[in-house]
Write a structure and sequence with these properties.
By secondary structure, the chain is mostly helical. The protein has helices at residues 4-15, 17-34, 36-42, 47-75, 77-97, 101-129, 135-139, 141-160, 167-187, 194-199, 203-213, 217-233, 241-244, 250-265, 268-273, 275-281, 287-315, 318-342, 355-373, 376-386, 390-421, 425-444, 453-461, 464-474; strands at 343-346, 349-352. Strands 1-2 form a two-stranded antiparallel sheet. The longest helix is centred in the last third of the chain and has 32 residues, at 390-421.
Amino acid sequence: MVPATTRIYLIALHTSLAGMLWGLDTGSIGPITQMEQFSSSIGHLSSGVLGIYVACILLSASLSSLCSGYIADLLSRKYGILTGGIIVLLGTIISASAKTFPVLVCARLITGIGQGQSISVVTIYLCEISPGEIRGTVAAVLQLLITVGIALGYFVAYASSRIGGELAWRTPFILEASMAAVFVSGMAFMPYSPRWLIQRGRIDEARAVLQKLRASSELVEDELCLIKGSLEEQSQEDASYREIFQKRYIRRSILGVFLMSSQMLCGIDAVLYYAPILFTQAGFTSNRAAFLASGVSGIINLIFTIPAQLWVDKWGRRFPLIGGGVSIATCFMAIGTLYAIYGGKADGQVYLSGKGPQWAVIILIYMFVASFSCSWAVVIKIYACEIIPTRLRAKACAVQQLSNWLVNFTVALTTPLFLRASPSGPYFLFGSAALFTAVVCHFLMPETKGKSLEEIEDLFEMTPQVVGHSVSIMT
């Protein structure tokens, strides 16, 4: 018999394949668009068109994430993830077989719809099936597989760039389609969220699920009572988007939206999507060398996600968010300063003079990726999800994910133009955003480490003065 904790981690691994699919796309799309084989068969993309193609997946993902709350409440968390996976499968198949650029754009928009639906629900699902003592670690599996996908995407693209003809850029899409097929096939066998079952009045089914996911029957009954009590205290009417921003919930709702937006405004996807461009500006002279340097950033991303995955429930939530924000800001401010002193523009291209500054920028980019991976990458999604009450969680997390992807869309769309227009500007912007977020977290973010989802609800029901006092005690 599989132990309950092991069963939870196995479920987390499979549902988090949604994250690996996202990572595969993130890691491969930049190198794909820089391949000579892609330009030969599809045509050369200008900076503006490149930004549109890369970013369009985020636009459709942001719109579908807003609908994901309704679907997750109506069909269940499980089928909310499954329907997203089916749409991703369709989109990646079309991408792998596309003959023209407009078809590629349409395929990317379809893929984004599926990604927005599935990823928005996965964190909710993992938080709701996990006990409080391992909730952070379980929910962080999603980010771990995103980083695995990013690293894999870089190196698949690097390897396939050696293939002659169109298969070079089609190979990463073929891999994504194969992964999506595995993901969809397994989701049908995943259990329902026990909290969703209780919310729907299916108490016996919820008890049966919890008995498979908890170590003892006493824990099952205690948790059932706690969940039912929490839901009974809340309105029995269906949750609405308007209710999320009512006086009782507005503080935690705005905090969640702010954190999810800031996660992208720190510039992480500017680095991950456009790593070949960044490393070329920093001194790499060939596409292949820039691809390989991008792959190294993917490996760093993966390696530094692992300690956060293991220790997120020991570190708590405040320390990684505040400390990570300061570290991220320091890296980007330093890069911006180096470009301001040693950088310039010639023939419409940004350059950086001197081997010393070039290597310093490369090292600082890697340090930024490491800082983000072991802090904000893991903690923000968990915290933003767990501070929302069960009845409102699906819709509130949909709004949070919408803000995350809209900011990400803006960053991805404008980064190619921004990088070519100003040597230092992007880095100062991203660094300032990260520093501001760290300051906000220091003053307004209560600690949630080790608390059940229902205890976290009680924490936010306190007056602001009491919450602030509890923060000072827990830090």
